[in-house]
Structure formats: structure tokens, C-alpha cells
Amino acid sequence: MLAGTPREEDLRHASSLGIADYVESRPPIPYREALSVMRSADVLALVTVGDMALTVPAKLYDYLAARRPILAITDQPEPGRIVDQTGAGVVVPPANPEAIAAGLARLRARCQAPDRGEIPAESVTAFDAEEQARRFAAVLEAAIAR
């Protein structure tokens, strides 16, 4: 499911791959409703490609809060490190369709467990909003103390 208006390029690509029937698009979702929509998903896809080695997309924090398995299709080290460190999912390179398919299959199998493959809360606590705010406040306090 895609929330928001999909790009025509993406729809054409899905069609060319023969998976257009599996792509569902919904109107944009208010942020306050997004977590419940993400929690209803079997697998969340995080796609980050580029040369921004230390960038972490905000969406990753939302995905961790949803505690659903993440298929991280990325060539960037930091999002991959976080997904690996938390055990939140599988990290695969974007240029390897076989690895992407295998990762998705692993996560779908994980979703068949009684807990639907839910990520344990304690695994992602370090990345929740409260903890991140606490760490940011500590940095600001240290800067002021100088």
C-alpha cells in the first residue's frame, strides 16, 4: 500500500514488472493515523539510495515505532546498521533483485508466527521519540555548559 499519490514512473515500473495488481494506492494519511496503518502492514519497505552515508530517513523512526518487520532496500550504511542492530528486519542492496525477493520472503514467513513477526519494544526503545528527545536535550545542555 502506498499512501499519497504515486509517481507515474513508479506505476509504469510496477506494470512492467507484472506486479501492478499488487500495488494499492490510498489518499494521503494524516500523520496521527499513519502509525495504525503501518502497524496493520505485514512488512514495511524502506528504500534509501544515494550518497548520503550518515543520513537516517525520518520514516525509519516511524517504522521502528510501528514495530513491524522492515525490508530495508538501501546502499546507505546508517539505516542498514539501525535495522540490523535492532533486529527489525532485513537489509538488502538495491541493485540485487534476488536479494530483495529473498528478504521479502524471509520477512513474510516471519509474519506467519503467532506474534505476526512483531519487533519487541525493548529492541527499538533507543530510537523512540522520548529517548531521542532526551539525547538531544543532553547535547544541548552540554553545549550550554561550555
Give an overview of the whole structure.
Helix 2 packs across helix 3. It is built from 7 helices and 5 strands, in the order βαβαβαβαβααα. The radius of gyration is 17 Å and the shape is globular. Helix 3 links the parallel strand 3 and strand 4. With 146 residues, the protein is of the alpha/beta class. The longest helix is centred in the last third of the chain and has 17 residues. The protein is 49% helix and 12% strand. It starts with a strand and ends with a helix. Strands 3-4-5 form a 3-stranded parallel beta sheet, with helices on both faces.
Characteristic key phrases:
two-stranded parallel sheet, globular, alpha/beta, 5 strands, single chain, 146 residues, 3-stranded parallel β-sheet
Question: What ranges have pLDDT less than 50 throughout 5 or more consecutive residues?
Answer: none
Question: Strand percentage, roughly?
Answer: 5-15%
Helical content stands at 40-55%
Structural class: alpha/beta
Summed up, the helix count is 7
Supply Rg. Answer: 17 Å
Q: What is the average per-residue confidence, as pLDDT, rounded to a whole number?
A: 90
Element string (H = helix, E = strand) = EHEHEHEHEHHH
Annotation, overall tally of beta strands? 5
Largest beta sheet: strand ordering = 3-4-5
Q: Major β-sheet, in short?
A: 3 strands, parallel
User: Which word captures the global form?
Assistant: globular
Gap from first CA to last CA: 49 Å
